[in-house]
Amino acid sequence: DTAVSQTPKYLVTQMGNDKSIKCEQNLGHDTMYWYKQDSKKFLKIMFSYNNKELIINETVPNRFSPKSPDKAHLNLHINSLELGDSAVYFCASSQQLGTDTQYFGPGTRLTVL
Amino acid sequence: AQKITQTQPGMFVQEKEAVTLDCTYDTSDPSYGLFWYKQPSSGEMIFLIYQGSYDQQNATEGRYSLNFQKARKSANLVISASQLGDSAMYFCAMRDSNSNSGYALNFGKGTSLLVTP
């Protein structure tokens, strides 16, 4: 009965490849997020998604694109992977946008070789 | 812009003792939310406690309490009766009040807590 789940937990790939990370929440929340945690453990927002509205952090390269097939899922697609994309990616969700606690998934450690 | 500062990169505490993890913030918004998350070595982010800027009382959740001093813009986490399992990275975060950010969380750099026997 995991609240926010992500797959895979680990992802190792070559530079230039395209990969996806899946996220699902079974909390019935309306809003989902993607965060990136770098090698120094600093966490930064990448995307917020609420009711089909996507809010993008302007610093995120357009190689990154979230896709939401339904309210319970927000997948992260990454094209033309670069070495600097190596990080831990966290999905999170909250009941509503702007007012509630965000609950995080277990994270996906992406390593680009 | 909002900013969260955690000045303690690392802390030690003996088992069963209490420990305070510092967090200061900077915002010009009258309404904001403050959060603490725990990240053990296994990597997941665990929500611990929340304090709203208009809350009259300091938040408490079991052994966790938040020492909220609004005038000083500080939101320190107090862990009472430390346990070995409390060893982890602790992050203070503030919810961005700007809708353009999607009300994302802005995180501090974290404090690594080690509980010793």
Structure description:
The complex is a heterodimer of chains A (113) and B (117). Chain A is mainly β and 113 residues long. Chain A has no helices and eleven strands. Chain A has strands at residues 4-7, 10-13, 19-25, 31-37, 43-50, 53-56, 64-67, 75-78, 87-94, 103-104, 108-112. In chain A, strands 2, 4, 5, 6, 9, 10 and 11 form a seven-stranded mixed β-sheet that branches. Chain A has a four-stranded antiparallel β-sheet with strand order 1-3-8-7, with no helix packed on it. Chain A is globular, with a radius of gyration of 13 Å. Chain A starts with a strand and ends with a strand. By secondary structure, chain B is mainly β. Chain B has strands spanning 3-5, 10-14, 19-21, 24-26, 33-39, 46-52, 60-61, 64-69, 74-79, 88-95, 105-107, 111-116. In chain B, the strands form three sheets. In chain B, strands 2, 5, 6, 10, 11 and 12 form a six-stranded mixed β-sheet that branches. Chain B has a four-stranded antiparallel β-sheet with strand order 3-9-8-7, with no helix packed on it. In chain B, strand 7 and strand 8 form a beta hairpin. Classes of the chains: A mainly beta (113), B mainly beta (117).
